[in-house]
Amino acid sequence: MTKLELTGDRNQCPTCNEYFNSTAAFDKHRTGKYGVDRRCLTVQEMNNKGMSKNDAGFWITSTMPAKAYAARKIAIKNAADIQQHYPEKIIGVL
Ligand SMILES: [Zn+2]
Q1: Are 19 and 58 in contact (CB under 8 A)?
Q2: 5: CA distance to ligand 1 center in Å?
């Protein structure tokens, strides 16, 4: 595995050597009770929890579901169209 640069909140787990985009993502990949059975999730378990790797190769907590992303794009486009035809209206989504 190539060494990735750790900037900002990015980190690497010293146990499983996976890279994480944030402390939240790191925390999400740890499971069990402290001092009892604390361990890293497997890649399969992380995928099952909705985690995924971003383009830079860092694990993230979750990606925005494609459906929600598409819905938001349409909402923004509709608001832009309304704004164009009714400039006096103030559209919250923009
Ligand atoms: Zn780990």
Answers
A1: yes
A2: 17
